Each structure stands twice: as C-alpha cells, then as structure tokens.
Amino acid sequence: MTKTLIQGASASWTPTRSAGLARLAAFLPRAGRAYARDRNVDRGPADRANVSALSPWIRRRLITEEEVLRAVLDRHTPQDAAMFIQEIFWRTYWKGWLERRADIFARFEADRLACLSDLSADEDLRTRLSAASEGRTGIDCFDEWVGELLRYGWLHNHARMWFASIWIFTLRLPWQLGAGFMFSHLLDADPASNTLSWRWVAGLHTRGKHYLARADNIALNTLGRFHPAGQLDERALPLSETVSGAPARRLPPAKGPEERRLALLLHEDDLHAESLGLTADVTAIAGLRLPHAGQACAPCSRFADGALEDGLMRAGDHYSVPAEALDPGMIVSWARACGVREVVTAYAPIGRTASTLGQIRDELARAGIRLAQIRRPFDERAWPHADAGFFRFRERIPELLAAIG
Predict the structure, then answer these.
(1) Are 110 and 206 found together in one domain?
(2) 151-171: average pLDDT
(3) How would DSSP label each residue in 105-165?
(4) Among candidates 378, 383, 394, which has minimal Cα distance to 87?
(5) Whether 59 and 82 share a structural domain
C-alpha cells in the first residue's frame, strides 16, 4: 500500500492520520503565546514553523478538531492558546453557519456557473481571468501566491485573505470565480470555510465590512519579501448583493443507526471511523470514492485518494472486516450484497459529499435499505451557536471547551 507524500518545502502533507498526529506533536510547543505573536507572518513555503499547517488533515478528519484542542490544552492554558483555539473554531463556525443557510451555498454555485458561462462572450474577462489564474498580473506577491497554490496546494491564511482581496478589489474579478479557483487547488478545500471566507473579504458576510489588502501590511507580514506599493486599490468599497438570504433554518436532523447489524460507509469529510462510537455489528466497510470534480490540481487529487485509503485501512483494522473504495453508483449493490438493512455514515456538512449522500440515500431507500448519519457531539454542540457573527460564537468557546473535557 503506497502512501502519497506532498512536499511544500518545510511543510509536508502525507495523507495519513499518523502524519497528521506527528505534525500536531511538532507544532504543540508553539500553539500558545508564540502562535499569537507570529501567526500573521507569512515567511513563504520554505518556513511554516509559525503556523500549524494542520488544515489538510483536519479538513478530512484524519485528525479531529476535538483531539487537536485536547492536545493544545494539555500543553497550554486556554488564555495562552486563545488565538490558536479560535483558529480551530473558525472552521467549526463556518460549517455551522452554512449548515443553517443552504441557500447561500446554492446561490454561490449558481452564480459561479453563470460567471463561467459569461466568459465565452466576454473576451476582456477571459483575458484578465487567465492572467490572474496563471500568475501574470505583474503584482509580484499575488503572482507568487498563485504559483505557490498551484505547486503546493496550500497558502498561509493571511496570504489567502490578501489573495482574495486583490482578486476582488484590485483585479476586479468576480469573487465567485476566485473562490472556485482557490477551492480547486487547495489540499484543505472546504465548501464552508472557502465560500464564506471569500464572502467575508468581499463584505457580504458582515454587510459593509470588507477586508482590503494594503501594501504596508503585506510588506510587514511577509518580512519585506513583497511590497506592492501603488499597485493595490486600497480605497475600494465593499461589494453588495440585492438578494437577501433565507432565515437561518434549524439544523437538519441526523438520525443515528437503529439496526444491530450494519455496513459502514466512509467519505472524505470524515475519515476517523474509529471514533464514531458504533456499538452495532459492522459487517463491511466501503469508502465513497468521489470524482475529483472541482479539484484541478494533482496534489489535491493525490491527497484525497491517499486520505481515503488510510481511512479505509484503519477502519478495516478497527472493525476487523474488509474495506474497499467504491464509486457512488456501486453503493446500493454493495449494500445489497452485504445483506444489511442499514448503512451508517458520518454526517457530511453542505458540499459535494452531502449532495452525493443525498442521492445515495434515496437510491438505498428504494432498495429497502436505510442510510443513517452520525453527527459528532462536537458539531452537535457547536453548530447551533453559529447563528450570527463569529464574535458572538466566540463567547461560547469556554463552554464548548469544557464539554470536551
């Protein structure tokens, strides 16, 4: 069984749980005050020691947010590690916020496709989009970040904000195309974090409050590697939208397993089946192998394939049953062959996995087989509080930490 190594200078991403745990252990000494002091500095791909670089593993729950937080609190006080703890909870906040507002993601997808359709009739837009996506804008920092994204599938969080701001306010390109471009090249591509972060930069998440990339700030936090003085629009106004979102819905129900004998289905949003708390008899395991639609870069595809492989191997060992990767169209026949009346899977938040599982659920139901979804207690506790801005959500962090022990 081969393991894929994705190397980005000092940061390497091997798509296994063991590699994620090793990276976590190496970063833990810096997760306290050192992180708070240095987190905004982008030293470039040769030196990522000041940030965790854990997002590719957390994104697929090769390691979970809960165990990262426990490890940090074993080493630091909540006060000293407050900034890193908040960084972990930002991802949770975005997921919970979008989970209650499915219309926002649906509108983004529709607008992105409409923008792509417009390209055929807009030569100027095609030209400017090509220059941006190929790193030929003449703005050195932006072009360098494009190259870094294409080569490694990862950017420092601060660089992602600068990148999005320059795309929207200086290059004046549709934010939906920028969000789609970044998503297609990120190892940690997450529908909620990516889409809503771009909306936040644009001034759409918090109406009227946008993020402007400034030359002096870039020079300061890249340690002088870049200083795009006079190249950025530092006076641009926030974007606006005329369509108002639907009111936040209640969290969709996640009904757990009912049968004592079942089959387990893994997917790329949650690859730590060992901690799902199943007490039923697991007779077979499959991994949902999704086509890499929307994931244009080879490192992303390799990481996704390697992560699923690792998740299946661990789950098979844990439950002592065979585990195999299957395409979506093979799941119903697999479940029938297993002779089960129920397939259980981890709950998938809004995104392509959730959409695919919805189709599989309906197909299984027609075959007389139920698809049960387990939502982790960590999400169950946190997501309901993602009902407004992050700073209101942040007030709940102490009680959320207390709940995990």
Answers:
(1) yes
(2) 97
(3) HHHHHHHHHHHHHHGGG-HHHHHHHHHHHTT-SS-HHHHHHHHHHHHHS---HHHHHHHHH
(4) 394
(5) yes
**Whole-number Å distance between alpha carbons of 46 and 349:** 33
Residues 187, 281 share a domain: no
Residue 183 falls inside a structural domain: yes
The model's confidence at residue 311, banded by pLDDT at 50, 70 and 90, is: very high
Assign residue 381 a region: left if phi > 0, alpha if psi is -120 to 50, beta otherwise?
Answer: alpha
Is the residue at 237 inside a domain? no
Same domain, 342 and 389: no
Q: How far apart are CA 99 and CA 397, in angstroms?
A: 19
Token output for 3: 């393991």
84, 72 Cβ separation under 8 angstroms: yes
Residue 389 CA to residue 395 CA, distance in Å, equals 11
Residue 193's identity, in one-letter code, is S
Q: Is residue 92 part of a domain?
A: yes
pLDDT tens for 351-380 read: 999 999 999 999 999 999 999 999 999 999
Which of the listed residues 172, 204, 221 is the one where a domain comes to its end?
Answer: 221
Q: Which helix (H) or strand (E) holds 345?
A: strand 342-346
Q: Give the pLDDT score at 11.
A: 46
Return the CATH number at 390.
Answer: 1.25.40
Nearest in space to 167 (alpha carbons), one of 210, 113, 111:
210
Domain count for the chain = 3
Q: Is the pLDDT of residue 72 over 70?
A: yes
Question: Which structural domain, as residue segments, surrounds residue 312?
Answer: 261-374
Contact criterion met (CB below 8 Å) for 348 and 328: no
Tens digits of per-residue pLDDT, 216-259?
A: 999 999 999 999 999 999 999 999 988 766 667 888 888 889 99
SS3 299: helix
| Same domain, yes or no: 109 and 125 | yes
Are residues 111 and 203 located together in one domain of the fold? yes
Residue 116 domain-assigned (yes or no): yes
CATH of the domain at 120: 1.10.579.10
pLDDT of res. 250 = 86
How many CA atoms does the CB half-sphere of 217 hold within 13 Å? 12
Contacts (Cβ under 8 Å, ≥6 apart) of 366 = none
Asked if 206 and 125 sit in the same domain, the reply is yes
Q: C-alpha dihedral over 123, 127, 133, 139, to 10 degrees?
A: -140
